[in-house]
Every structure is written in structure tokens, then in C-alpha cells.
Write a structure and sequence with these properties.
- The protein is of the alpha+beta class.
- It has five helices and four strands, in the order E-E-E-H-E-H-H-H-H.
- It has a four-stranded antiparallel beta sheet, covered by helices on one side.
- Helix 2 packs parallel to helix 5 and helix 3 crosses helix 4.
């Protein structure tokens, strides 16, 4: 899953640039400039996805980008956490069993799924592998 969400950025009455996500109706932000609005959008997106994980809600699947929308990417660490959260949700394996397979304490699995805990990428990758998933990192071209 690519954690890139389409965002609409429009100038509001106060001359700010309002950012909304059609896949995340409860997440919006703004900025004084388009660049500031995009930066704020990435922060907003991270907070919304962290909230989904913390509240044990489904993470919405991003829709394809449409004309006039901007691609907002979930920061890499949160994308890895979201991928693990989704994999755990889809699997039939209990967290205690995943911990046993990884030779970890169950508390460590809870930390790995905590969006605010800084989990090292190799540990997330190992957990995803144990669940039958992989993790892919890609580099994007600089914005024009």
C-alpha cells in the first residue's frame, strides 16, 4: 500500500490555503502559502493516521490522485507503523504469538504498534515478514 493521500488545497476567505483530504474527512489544516500548507498537510496526515492506530480504527485506503489535487505522503516512520498495524489487523495471529515468533516480549509488540514510540525500522520489517508482508522504501524525484 502506498501511503500517499490526495489533498485539495484552496484559498479560503482569510487568504490562507485550506487543505482537506477526501479520504480523511476529519483531517484538515492550512498554511499562509501553498508550500506551508503542504508541510502542514503532512503533519496533519501523520496525526490522523496515528489517531486511527491509537483508537484501533481502520486506516483509510488512499484514493487515486485527481486533477487539481496534491499528493501528500505519510512520513516514512509512520507509514511503516501503519503498514504493521494493517498487517496485524489482517492476520489471524495474536500479538502474543507474533511476539513469540520474533522472540520478543509482548510489550515490545505493543510498543511497535504505538504510533508515538520510535521503533527501529529493522524491527518493523521483521514483524511484517513474520506476518507474510514486506516493506518497500522508494525515493521520489525532487519536486519541480
Amino acid at each position: 500500500m502506498d501511503f500517499t493521500y490526495p489533498a485539495k488545497i484552496e484559498k479560503d476567505e482569510g487568504r490562507y490555503f485550506l487543505v482537506t483530504f477526501r479520504d480523511l474527512p476529519y483531517g484538515s489544516t492550512d498554511g499562509k502559502t501553498i508550500d506551508e500548507a503542504k508541510k502542514q498537510a503532512a503533519d496533519c496526515l501523520e496525526e490522523v493516521i496515528a489517531g486511527c492506530i491509537s483508537d484501533e480504527q481502520d486506516i483509510p485506503v488512499p484514493s487515486p490522485l485527481e486533477n487539481g489535487e496534491y499528493p501528500i505522503r505519510l512520513p516514512a516512520q509512520m507509514a511503516a507503523k501503519a503498514a504493521l498495524y494493517i498487517a496485524v489487523q489482517k492476520s489471524d495471529i495474536r500479538r502474543s504469538e507474533l511476539a513469540r515468533q520474533l522472540n520478543l516480549d509482548e510489550k515490545e509488540i505493543r510498543r511497535m504498534l504505538d504510533p508515538m514510540h520510535a521503533t527501529k525500522l529493522p524491527r518493523i520489517e521483521a514483524a511484517l515478514h513474520a506476518l507474510g508482508y514486506g516493506l518497500c522504501v522508494s525515493m521520489l524525484e525532487p519536486a519541480a
